């Protein structure tokens, strides 16, 4: 994370030197309205706990679940978001405790209550019961915003985390929690880490960003399973060489089957299954972020949970599954 805090590619671009990330870096000034370098929002490494705080199981620290998205959007009004004027301790605390308390503890609200996090995120409980209960994540309030706005991505990923990591799966992985918590059992990582004030600038920056930062950080988390979300994420992984090239139908096939699987080679004997497919997309992109989310099918849940616990599945379990 410390290398990203003062990313050399970012620093070059801030000095108006031209490189692969220049357009994305400069988008905060040209499209986001930033005037001073000191107000430039630093790259987003990931959102969730520090890898050093993952429990050791069988001699390894492995995050159960890692969500890959294509980019980190720029939001000028977000309070306390780290800028070039922040020291490393502030930068580290913000992203590792964004969904946690000031002391780094993760909790979810009980009925009728709210949780306010270190990153000024408000988490509320929905009206559902049991498996249908969801937790709604609200963006940090901008000045003059009394209610707050539902953050669709965080809410969608919190739903997926809760669905995929049930109590029995967590117990197999050495956790005593009753359900998966976003930030504690699952982290979010963008492929392009600099905040995007102009989303069209993201694709050109992804290969350099992955080479400089993402690949190394994926190795630090040593995830049991990666879920890739969105066509732009899959395209970015392919262009960065993390997924095999030449599969031109990959992004067009997201809707075809509930789940597809490939393998990411992170080196040092770290072969990680990466999955994508319509089941994840429909749960992630529910039309109403504050309403009930679609439930993932039992068959897909079984496949994904088996992948997280054992790292592989047997052929008879692959009815709704396509291995690329």
Look at the structure and give the mean pLDDT: 84
Order of helices and strands: HHHEEEHEEEHHEHEHEEHHE
Q: Provide the spatial order of strands within the biggest beta sheet.
A: 7-3-8-10-9-11
How many strands, what sense, and barrel or not for the largest sheet? 6 strands, mixed
Account of the 3D structure:
- The protein has a six-stranded mixed sheet.
- The protein is α/β, with parallel strands linked by helices and 324 residues long.
- It has helices spanning 2-5, 8-14, 22-30, 88-96, 152-164, 167-172, 202-221, 231-239, 278-284, 298-310; strands at 56-57, 60-61, 65-73, 114-116, 122-125, 135-138, 186-196, 226-228, 259-265, 271-276, 321-323.
- The chain starts with a helix and ends with a strand.
- Helix content is 30%, strand content 17%.
- Residues 287-293 and 314-321 have low confidence and may be disordered.
In summary, what is this structure?
With 324 residues, the chain is an alpha/beta fold. The protein is built from 10 helices and 11 strands.
Question: Which SSEs are present, and which pair or pack?
Answer:
Elements: H1 2-5, H2 8-14, H3 22-30, E1 56-57, E2 60-61, E3 65-73, H4 88-96, E4 114-116, E5 122-125, E6 135-138, H5 152-164, H6 167-172, E7 186-196, H7 202-221, E8 226-228, H8 231-239, E9 259-265, E10 271-276, H9 278-284, H10 298-310, E11 321-323
Helix pairs in contact: 2-3, 7-8
């Amino acid at each position: 994370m410390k290398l990203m805090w003062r990313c050399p590619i970012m620093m070059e671009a801030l000095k108006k030197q031209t490189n692969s990330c220049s357009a994305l870096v400069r988008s905060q000034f040209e499209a986001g309205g930033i005037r001073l370098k000191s107000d430039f929002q630093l790259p987003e490494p990931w959102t969730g706990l520090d890898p050093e705080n993952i429990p050791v199981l069988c001699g390894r620290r492995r995050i159960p679940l890692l969500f890959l998205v294509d980019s980190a959007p720029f939001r000028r009004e977000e309070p306390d978001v780290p800028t070039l004027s922040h020291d490393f301790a502030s930068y580290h605390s913000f992203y590792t405790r964004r969904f946690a308390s000031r002391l780094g503890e993760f909790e979810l609200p009980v009925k009728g209550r709210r949780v306010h996090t270190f990153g000024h995120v408000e988490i509320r409980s929905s009206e559902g019961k049991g498996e249908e209960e969801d937790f709604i994540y609200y963006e940090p309030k901008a000045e003059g915003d009394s209610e707050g706005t539902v953050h669709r991505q965080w809410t969608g990923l919190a739903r997926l985390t809760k669905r995929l990591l049930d109590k029995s799966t967590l117990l197999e992985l050495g956790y005593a929690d009753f359900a998966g918590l976003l930030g504690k059992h699952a982290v979010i990582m963008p492929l392009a880490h600099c905040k995007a004030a102009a989303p069209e600038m993201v694709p050109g920056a992804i290969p350099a960003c992955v080479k400089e930062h993402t690949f190394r950080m994926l190795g630090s988390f040593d995830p049991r399973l990666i879920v890739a979300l969105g066509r732009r994420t899959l395209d970015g992984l392919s262009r960065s060489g993390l997924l095999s090239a030449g599969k031109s139908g990959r992004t067009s096939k997201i809707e075809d089957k509930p789940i597809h699987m490939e393998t990411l080679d992170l080196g040092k004997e770290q072969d990680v299954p990466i999955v994508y497919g319509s089941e994840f997309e429909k749960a992630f992109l529910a039309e109403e972020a504050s309403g009930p989310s679609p439930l993932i099918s039992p068959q897909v849940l079984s496949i994904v949970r088996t992948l997280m616990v054992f790292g592989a599945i047997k052929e008879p379990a692959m009815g709704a599954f396509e291995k690329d």
